[in-house]
Write a structure and sequence with these properties.
InterPro entries: CapZ_alpha, CapZ_alpha/beta, CapZ_alpha/beta_2, CapZ_alpha_1, F-actin_cap_asu_CS. GO terms for molecular function: actin filament binding. It is built from five helices and ten strands. The chain has 232 residues and is an alpha+beta fold. It has two domains: 56 residues, F-actin capping protein, alpha subunit (Ribosomal protein S3 C-terminal domain), CATH 3.30.1140.60; 142 residues, F-actin capping protein, beta subunit (Aspartate Aminotransferase, domain 1). Helix 2 crosses helix 3.
Length: 232
């Protein structure tokens, strides 16, 4: 169960009819089945092993009242993903309740380099609540890097984003949302890069030994006069 929970939290991709689909709690159905809204299919999945089987056409799982917005946002963000992510994946869900429509867009990209002892993953989850000509947008962006050569170090970061968009049409909302997400995620990446550059000259530098064990700086012109020089 812990492995399955982890895979859902990480937006783990699986292949369904030669297409990548993200495993998330938003697409989870009963009896270990999941929904792929884009292809309008459901499938059984052994989440721990990432094994897909029993692929079927979806019917009642698709909310037709939300499908117009879901489809347009899926198309708009798919273009954004292809332009900004090396191997990014996207799954967009939609449902309606009363007079409101909820859209959830999940984005994932990762690069694993076991031969160099590091792995990295990007995840972002965007929730859009549409009602009365307004769309409330809430996003959570997460990065995680694991380095494990001669040690075990993890860097984890996240950022929350909130904004409001005016809704004039499904297509216009999709375009405005893609621009908003592009700006938020770009700002986040720039901030991460700036933070790491700052850490290399401050935090990490403070961890290094400032002076040798003698507590005095070495005069390299007199190196032979030091005990270590004599031993060499």
């Amino acid at each position: 169960r812990s492995i399955a929970k982890y895979r859902l939290e990480q937006f783990t991709p699986v292949v369904v009819d030669k297409e990548n689909v993200l495993l998330t709690t938003h697409g989870a159905l009963d009896n270990n089945r999941f929904l792929d809204p884009r292809s309008k299919k459901t499938f059984h999945c052994n989440v721990a092993k990432k094994e897909v089987s029993d692929i079927q056409a979806a019917s009642s799982e698709i909310d037709q009242n939300a499908e117009g917005y879901r489809s347009e946002i899926d198309n708009g963000l798919d273009k954004y993903i292809k332009e900004h992510y090396p191997s990014g994946l996207l799954t967009v869900y939609g449902k309606s309740s009363g007079g409101s429509i909820s859209i959830i867009a999940c984005i994932e990209d990762h690069k694993f380099s076991p031969e160099n002892f590091w792995n990295g993953r990007w995840r972002s989850e965007w929730k859009i609540e549409i009602e009365d000509g307004n769309a409330k947008v809430v996003g959570v962006l997460k990065t995680q890097v694991h380095y494990y050569e001669d040690g075990n170090v993890q860097l984890m970061s996240h950022k929350d984003c909130k904004d409001n968009l005016t809704v004039s049409s499904e297509k216009q909302l999709a375009e405005d949302l893609a621009k908003l997400i592009a700006k938020c995620e770009s700002d986040y990446q720039v901030a991460i890069n700036a933070n790491y550059n700052s850490m290399s000259t401050t935090t990490f530098k403070a961890l290094r030994r400032q002076l040798p064990v003698t507590r005095t700086k070495i005069d390299w012109n007199k190196i032979l006069g030091y005990q270590i020089g004599k031993e060499i």
